Amino acid sequence: MSKYNLKESLRSYFGFDKFKGSQEAIIENLLNKQNTFVIMPTGGGKSLCYQLPSFLLPGTSVIVSPLIALMKNQVDAIRNLTNNESVAHFMNSSLSKAEIERVKSDIREGKTKMLYVAPESLTKKANIEFLTSVDISFFAIDEAHCISEWGHDFRPEYRRLREIFEKISKVPIIALTATATPKVQHDIQKNLNMLDAVVYKSSFNRDNLYYEIRPKKDVEKQIIRYIKSRSGESGIVYCLSRKKVEEVAQLLQVNGINALPYHAGLEGGLRARNQDMFLMEEADVIVATIAFGMGIDKPDVRFVIHHDISKSLESYYQETGRAGRDGGVGECLAFYSYKDIEKLEKFLQGKPITEQEIGRQLLNEIVSYSETSVCRRKFILHYFGEFYDEKGCNEKCDNCKNPRDRFEGSEHVSRLLKAVLSLDETQKAKHLCSFLSGTLTSDMKSYKHDQLPDFGGGKEKDEYFWNAVVRQATVAGLLSKEIETFGVLGLTDAGHAFIAKPSSFMLLKEHDFSNTDDTDSIISGGAKEAAFDDELYQLLLDLRKSISKERDIPPFVIFQEPSLKDMCFQYPITMEELTNIQGVGNGKAARYGAPFVACIAEYVEHNEIERPQDIMVKTLVNKSQLKVQLIQNIDRKLALEDIAKSQGKSFEDLLLEIETVVSSGTRVNINYYLNDVLDQDSQDEVFDYFNEAETDDIIAAYREFDGLYTEEELRLMRIRFMSEVAN
């Protein structure tokens, strides 16, 4: 029996009336000076397991944490509990020498109960000597999966922690993580020399979370629709790269969503400000790389969206776990394309072979999770070594909400299990699927597996089908994956029993994720994928023709064909929307836009067109500065060749840029350059041609003059003509 009144202490320090799950037993174990290992899902209350004992025990607890943002967040929270600035400190590279001295002084005087440190700070000789001289109550390692090279966020500096702890003080250790497969758990305990630790493993099931995977098609459009349907709710959007974070954050802002970016490349003060604005509900959505949110305690995150799929199932589980910490609804939506997996595989190149193999195996698991038709909750829990009956999912995942077709697969499963035995339980899923489908790979030849009698025994089905059978047989417990050998498949006792006496096995038809976008570019200018509206196009052509006759100018001067076609995708019905159209700037919209907008508005209303207006955005790349620079250089009458050279462009690229500027309604005066290229009579001749032509097509002009003028000369004259007549 503990000498501490834990319930009273809990109420006194934290204001809670009761512990969650196994918190009380964990704290008792630590107070009894026993090594403790805690595996508890995100939102389960891990931090309280070391914070409460820190208040109760004499001395200072040392808490190892991987992220500066997380340390600051937790230290602020603890200080607010006691109204005592000295009760908790962090020590990391962000502090000045004077600030570090203040921290040390508070610890020496016994004012500090918790010291958060980065593992890198612990390795410094001066810090080791200081900590050896003060009273340490225990060591806590948060995010302990960073110790294991089999974990999803391995940090080499974490491998030295035990050696450093032993130099400082022989006190108990508590290691905590939200994600640990059985292999990772053993690796952590072994590395910390705490195989004697009492292990507290909570269920990984978060029954308030809804899991869904969608093909990565029109991803930005889908994300905007989704967030707009949840107006005012807090959410996180995860992206793979810093660049993508910036682009998506801007895209959401342009579309009226209160979003901010967060990634390690942002200036420190801005990053902290954005995080605080999200926590204080001054921003609804944070768009982030996975660096965001490790331990960020915002209880009411209602959705987590993965723009790009995670690099492992552990990462995905931890990131989705930031939703619904208050027990309320949490929706987890991820967009999956195998192209993202290929990108992640490229990141592994150049790393040590073992690290590459581990990385590929982790990627294989996230592929399996994404493509499976099995209950997603069951799949996740199986991965973490926990059995789950999918009947309990209650349609809290897309696969249970919209179940796939089932068919009797006993014969297929038997054939798969026998093939595993044929290959002496030495091969991974990919090789096994090639073997069954009769695909002749280089490995197949070198192992001479193509000469075995079972080779091609399931050739009526493709590798994709057999991969689905492998996944479902593994989740059903008939196959096991050997972690140490990077995913080699073997039979379990249940698998052997199935071969001896096959029984019914209902297989699920797997998802087809082949229909995803080929590009990861941010949408600019609207829904290019929508169906082209021929009827509207004819109306706009007729309108352009009538205006050209009325004003006695060529039709293309008003709007060029690419602009008209873009209108037939986007249906702009306001002048502001018209400026989102390709080749239409404010000047051109003001000069010619009103009748076109009126025509489109009437057409949309009459035909009840559903416009894709949830994503009517301009290109997010800020080209305005370059455009201003270009116009200034032309105003200064610099030779176009010199302008191109100064911007690192070819002359062809510069011409294209000037044409774009002019076609969107901005006037430029290149007469000074033209006068050196063509005499006045030639200029007048070409100018008159464009003034009477039906089209501004350069090839048509070239033919008209029988090659008298070069393509370049004609393009330069078209720029002059459009500037003077259209703009």
DSSP strand (E) fraction? Answer: 5-15%
Rg (CA only): 32 Å
- CATH fold name of the largest domain, please? Rossmann fold
Mean pLDDT: 86
Helix content: 40-55%
Total domain modules: 5
The number of helical elements comes to 34
CATH architecture assignment of the largest domain: 3-Layer(aba) Sandwich
Keywords:
48% helix; 17 strands; Rossmann fold; 7-stranded parallel β-sheet; 727 residues; alpha/beta; Arc Repressor Mutant, subunit A; single chain; 34 helices
Write the layout of secondary structure elements.
Blueprint: H1 6-14, H2 23-31, E1 36-39, H3 48-56, E2 60-64, H4 68-82, E3 88-91, H5 97-108, E4 114-117, H6 119-122, H7 125-132, E5 136-141, H8 161-168, E6 173-177, H9 182-191, E7 198-201, E8 209-215, H10 219-228, E9 234-238, H11 242-254, E10 259-262, H12 268-279, E11 285-288, E12 301-306, H13 313-320, E13 330-336, H14 338-348, H15 353-371, H16 376-383, H17 398-401, E14 406-408, H18 410-422, H19 429-437, H20 442-447, H21 463-475, E15 479-482, E16 488-491, H22 493-500, E17 506-508, H23 534-551, H24 555-558, H25 561-570, H26 575-578, H27 586-607, H28 624-635, H29 640-646, H30 651-663, H31 671-677, H32 680-692, H33 698-704, H34 711-726
Parallel strand pairs: 1-6, 1-7, 2-4, 2-5, 3-4, 5-6, 8-13, 9-11, 9-12, 10-11, 12-13
Antiparallel strand pairs: 14-17, 15-16
